[in-house]
Design goal:
Number of helices: 16
Shape: globular
Structural class: alpha+beta
Length: 708
């Protein structure tokens, strides 16, 4: 199936394989129906996948799986694969592949020329995979022409109806979501059974006699259970010593929570029905604020959905005895420099380029300004992404400064959360809106996660996890971290990297915008803001220098795949370089190099101009995946404003024409063409070290008080 010229997908010791053959078949929608079992520490049930042939499906010639295809590992001799059977699935009967069960067994024909659907999967117990018969869904048939449906085969009519379901216009999203749910409840098809096989990193499914993706079933149902030791979710106890489970941002993402396509290009929508004991609250990355519905079993049922296509890795769930924080009287006595002014309200946030206290200050520049009239902003808001109900073109959403939001925590932290996180959250949301405009998501939940969380925060669609560490000390840490995670709504979620190794696109932007948002929340005078930022820059520069000295060289490169960044095999499979390296989660290099790169450009353009560019950027690229060298190039306008040229001959390799820059030649880097981010980051270091060191000396000598 793969040419010998394709990428070598045999993972090294720390590379994460992405096995899904997304060029052949794409998952467009997931429907999860799951039950959380705290006694056994498993999540079990079924997931329904709605499929569509990928861009490489036409003309695909399937060869024996003993060919050069690196994403289809050889089956261990003697191993068997389960086949779907007409027997009713019994909850809890999931078994590892290869063990005996009540369902029938068939040999996994390794020499077959049948098409194989490959899903990313590990640490799951799959008991059955079946094709879903949508002919039993009367509402779905209304999407087709009755005369046409009568003259074509049952299977072909099913394919046509599913394709039309996927293509329903975004203004009819409620009908689409309802039909997805109805189809997920349909019975299994009484046709040729599906074979499936599991290896360490994937679930492989095929139907005997089907040799192309275009003839492969369009709706599959997979019955499975997670393992207590699975790497995608963490079973633990909260700060009140009560059981809970949540997705903790694992390097393997969600493949140990449900079978999925993990490459970022596999953007899909989802709907999840989760059952949990009645005393538990289920939080999930969904657009709606779910209300629990009691069941006869004593469990509560929670339903969430998402209409904006997102990578499966962004799906997030947390189940625990969380308590919702309630608004109380704000404490205005402590930490005046660290918390918002008592007079500050969300409506007082000013738009991009303006300062609350230094209104008369203007940056003088001879370069053209990135300013837009109201009419031009409306024209700029036309979308370039796939069809979905986008908030950027909705007038009500565009005027929504503060999203509906809730904050959850264990009971022991509730009072602290009500005094810190709850009053800060609307101010941080308003600050972000004043800089970047429309919030990409319709609501936000914030959860203080159990101890042992590996970072200060993690952002997902509609939900943010915060470490309990942000509750300690002054409010500055909590506020800055909220600003950082909120920035990910635009950079990292609404705009994502097409190759996960380019995480600087997410983390570098969020780190830079964290300071911008927090300065607006604090309502600092310009001089105070600049002092605070210089001190932060010095601390970040010292952290970066430490990492540059003490870390593996390969982990310090912003684009480790260099010219092959974003490239995949013929099937769509690839690897994420160094994703499983145990030291990588503790590194800040992508945050800091990206931050200094952006800070350097802002110093050349002027911050007002720079933030205007950000606003234009999110209007242009929201809902899309980008690379550093995407075409049209996302940075070309910005480089022009900064007075630099992007060499068209090498733009695809993300390199600057720096031959004319004598300071680069003097740097000892040979004067050769360097990676743009690397060169700008190096230049930013020089400026920051001289400026920030001077600021530190002023602080030490008492000439300036600490501003952080």
């Amino acid at each position: 199936m793969e040419s010998t010229q394709q990428l070598d997908l045999d993972p090294s010791k720390d590379d994460l394989p992405l096995r899904a053959n997304t060029n052949h078949m794409l998952v467009r929608h997931y429907v999860l129906d799951l039950t959380v079992d705290f006694q056994r520490k498993v999540i079990g049930g079924n997931i329904v996948l709605f499929l569509e042939p990928g861009k490489g499906a036409d003309g695909l010639k399937v060869h024996s799986t003993h060919s050069e295809d690196p994403c289809t590992p050889d089956v261990v001799e003697g191993e068997e694969a389960s086949c779907s059977a007409s027997a009713t699935h019994v909850p809890g009967d999931a078994v590892p592949c290869g063990e005996k069960s009540d369902v029938s067994k068939c040999s996994w024909d390794d020499e077959s020329e049948d098409f194989t659907l490959v899903l990313d999967c590990c640490d799951l117990l799959v008991s059955k995979v079946e094709e879903v018969d949508v002919s039993t869904v009367p509402e779905l048939r209304k999407l087709g022409d009755e005369d046409e449906m009568d003259v074509v085969s049952s299977q072909h009519s099913s394919f046509v109806l599913v394709q039309r379901l996927i293509a329903i216009p975004s203004d009819q999203w409620r009908q689409q979501q309802d039909l997805y749910l109805q189809c997920s409840h349909a019975s299994g098809a009484h046709t040729q059974p599906l074979l499936f096989h599991m290896d360490q990193w994937s679930l492989q499914v095929k139907k005997k006699g089907v040799q192309t993706p275009c003839d492969f079933p369009r709706i599959l149902r997979i019955w499975y259970e997670t393992k207590p030791t699975g790497g995608s979710v963490r079973w633990t106890k909260d700060q009140d010593d009560r059981g809970c489970v949540y997705t903790m941002g694992s390097p393997i993402n969600n493949r140990a929570l449900f079978p999925c396509q993990e490459p970022p290009v596999a953007m899909s929508t989802w709907r999840a029905r989760v059952r949990a004991p009645c005393e538990y609250t289920v939080l999930l990355s969904g657009e709606n604020q779910a209300s629990p519905v009691p069941e006869e079993t004593g469990f509560f049922q929670w339903d969430y959905f998402v209409t904006m296509p997102m990578p499966a890795s962004t799906f997030t769930i947390a189940v625990g005895m969380w308590q919702e924080a309630r608004a109380g009287a704000p404490n205005l006595e402590e930490g005046k420099n660290e918390e918002p002014s008592a007079e500050l309200s969300c409506s007082s946030m000013t738009s991009v380029g303006s300062r609350p206290t230094d209104q008369c200050f203007k940056i003088q520049s001879s370069r053209p300004k990135l300013t837009f009239s109201a009419k031009e902003e409306d024209e700029q808001s036309s979308c370039s992404h796939v069809n979905y109900p986008c908030r950027f073109v909705n007038n009500t959403s565009r005027a929504q400064v503060v999203l509906p939001h809730r904050v959850f925590a264990p009971f022991c932290h509730l009072q602290k959360v009500e005094a810190t996180v709850l009053p800060l959250l609307p101010l941080c949301l308003a600050a972000a809106h004043s800089v970047l405009g429309v919030h990409p998501f319709s609501r936000l939940d914030v959860l203080i996660v159990p101890p042992g969380f590996s970072s200060l925060g993690m952002a997902s669609p509609h939900i943010i996890f915060l470490s309990q560490s942000v509750l300690a000390g002054e409010r500055g840490l909590c506020g800055a971290r909220l600003c950082h995670e909120i920035a990910h709504s635009w950079f990292g979620l609404a705009i994502g990297a097409r190759d996960w190794t380019e995480e600087w696109i997410s983390e570098g932007f969020a780190t830079y915008l964290e300071d911008v948002f927090w300065a607006k929340v604090q309502q600092l005078a310009r001089s105070e803001d600049e002092e605070q930022r210089r001190l932060k820059a010095l601390l970040r520069w010292r952290r970066l220098k430490d990492e540059l000295v003490n870390s593996e060289e390969e982990l310090l490169v912003l684009r480790p795949n260099k010219d092959t960044t974003g490239e995949v095999s013929e099937s769509g499979a690839s690897t994420v370089k160094h994703a499983l390296n145990p030291g990588k989660p503790f590194m800040q290099v992508h945050y800091l190099k990206g931050y200094f790169f952006l800070k350097f450009l802002a110093s050349k353009v002027g911050e007002d101009e720079f933030l205007s560019f950000f606003r234009v950027f999110v209007r242009r690229f929201h809902g899309q995946l980008i690379l550093s060298q995407s075409r049209p190039h996302p940075w070309s306008c910005l480089f022009g404003l900064a007075g630099y040229t992007w060499n068209s001959e090498v733009a695809g390799r993300n390199q600057l024409d720096v031959g004319a820059h004598s300071d680069c030649a003097r740097s000892g880097r040979g004067g050769c063409k360097m990676d743009a981010c690397e060169w700008r980051c190096w230049k930013g270091h020089q400026a920051e070290e001289s400026g920030a060191q001077g600021e530190l000396q002023r602080v030490k000598s008492g000439a300036a008080g600490p501003a952080a």
